[in-house]
Specification:
Rossmann fold, 488 residues, 19% strand, alpha/beta, 6-stranded parallel β-sheet, 16 helices, single chain, 9-stranded mixed β-sheet, 19 strands
Length: 488
């Protein structure tokens, strides 16, 4: 099967969040030869952002891309751009080079906010991918778009290339990683999309909504979040169009790259370890605590992520005094909401040997926290899937999570199911509920035999991309079948 991924991020070349990890790891799982992968032919189309370090031995392809013109609305202007192709691990990376669009300080925004021409920038990405398929005359079976940035490609495919013999039969899958971001393009900016009149609303185009509507199949990144998003509370204003898709909207749980996240080989740690020998984990905890002036004699609670109310960090701030009172030590790594950071820093000043806040993004330190912490806090208000809880379990660090989205799909409460439990789950998005779950977790920590069992259960959990990749393969087959029926 030939698969074209269209995405705004892909690890390790361009990343602001988990989307990049998913695009890379899924592409490798699909594209690596059997038996380690599924053996498909995978291309990943990605903007060539400023500072991106490309793979070696790139091969150029020039394509003519039609784009809308503000001065001559409705009549596209053609630009010749270069797509650079290089080998990645299991797939071909295709970098779309267009300096005025992508050679900027930020991927989506600068200090003044989102770029005004984001619609044009990501329309160019999608149109370049479609023109590359036409230029090479190698049809693809499916275009797999990710989030609103792929919306223009799916819309162009059906509205501008509907009669193209090479593209008309191409199936589409749209993956919604986070429904909160729609890619709204106002009426005044609509020209950037080069779409026929009648697409979108009278005041503009909601690119994610339009993509959901037009894709042959739509998915999000966990079964529970798929169900939650059908409600007004979690649907981010898209629950109506998601409900309208019926069984053409499904949830496929993300995995993690277990070769990259492996405590037995992680060079960032003080020593390797596994379920049969935790000495490396203990050494990493001692080193981590010493480096930040924490008391290592008690339980260490780790927190990693974007400091945002969605992630429940306000709950962590409110719960911090009670967690310290229960004997915990807290280490927080992340950037984001200034108010949340200020609240955590104020708490750390009151308890410098119990609370440490690292206001930065640091990959190696994140690995040491996943490994060195005894428990991992992830109290998200909503969580499409989440990777932190999967990595924490892989590193023998039981997570304390709110029952939401992918957290509910991946963490088994150790009190509710003592035999299979992998962490501790709570319901209400309230500091008291987080504290109560943490207290249960700390109680288990005080029982070494029981705690080792919980750690081992989490480490045995299969978080690899093996099963999700097969589910995506099945989804592609469904989308191809749906496209065939639509054409007939």
């Amino acid at each position: 099967m030939r698969i074209a991924m269209i995405a705004s991020e892909c690890e390790p070349w361009a990343k602001t969040g988990g989307l990049a990890d998913v695009v890379d790891a899924l592409s490798r799982a699909l594209g690596r030869p059997e038996p380690v992968g599924l053996g498909h032919d995978v291309d990943v189309y990605l903007p060539w952002y400023r500072g991106l370090e490309p793979p070696p031995d790139l091969v150029p392809l020039e394509v003519r891309v039609p784009l809308g013109s503000a001065s001559d609305a409705g009549r596209p202007v053609h630009q010749t751009i270069t797509i650079w192709s290089g080998a990645a691990d299991g797939y071909r990376l295709r970098l779309v080079q267009h300096a005025s669009s992508f050679d900027r300080d930020g991927m989506y925004m600068d200090a003044g906010g989102d770029y005004d021409d984001n619609a044009a920038r990501f329309t160019l990405l999608g149109r370049a991918a479609l023109e590359a398929i036409r230029t090479e005359a190698r049809p693809v079976d499916i275009i797999h778009g990710h989030d609103w940035q792929a919306g223009p490609a799916l819309l162009s495919l059906r509205h501008r290339y509907a009669a193209d013999p090479l593209l008309a039969s191409t199936a589409t899958l749209l993956t919604c990683h986070n429904l909160a971001y729609h890619g709204w393009t106002s009426l005044g900016q609509r020209w950037q999309l080069d779409l026929p009149e009648g697409v979108g609303a009278v005041d503009g185009v909601d690119l994610l909504r339009e993509g959901i509507h037009i894709a042959d199949l739509v998915n999000t990144v966990s079964p529970t979040y798929a169900r939650e998003s059908l409600t007004p509370e979690f649907g981010a204003g898209l629950d109506d169009v998601l409900r309208a898709r019926g069984d053409a909207y499904l949830g496929i749980l993300n995995g993690i790259d277990t070769s990259l996240w492996d405590p037995a080989s992680d060079a960032a740690l003080a020593g390797p370890y596994g379920a049969g020998d935790f000495s490396g984990k203990a050494a990493t905890k001692v080193e981590l605590a010493a480096r930040h002036g924490l008391d290592a004699d008690g339980p260490l609670l780790g927190v990693i992520g974007r400091l945002d109310p969605q992630k429940g960090f306000d709950l962590v701030t409110a719960a911090a005094p009670a967690l310290i009172e229960l004997g915990g030590r807290l280490i927080v790594l992340g950037t984001g909401n200034a108010r949340l950071i200020a609240g955590l820093i104020a708490a750390s000043r009151r308890h410098p040997d119990r609370i440490v806040v690292l206001d930065r993004f640091d990959r190696d330190e994140a690995r040491r926290i996943y490994a060195g912490a005894d428990l991992f806090l992830m109290p998200s208000r909503f969580e499409p899937c989440g990777q932190g809880q999967l990595i924490a379990m892989r590193y023998g660090t039981p997570p304390v999570v709110r029952s939401s989205g992918g957290l509910a799909d991946t963490v088994i409460d150790a009190d509710a199911d003592p035999e299979r439990g992998t962490g501790f789950v709570f319901g209400p998005a309230e500091p008291e509920a987080l504290v109560a779950a943490a207290e249960r977790a700390l109680g288990a920590f005080s029982d070494p035999v029981r705690f080792r069992h919980i750690q081992a259960s989490g480490m045995a959990h299969d978080s690899s991309w093996k099963a999700p990749a097969r589910q995506y393969q099945s989804a592609y087959e469904r989308a191809i079948e749906a496209r065939g029926k639509a054409l007939r």
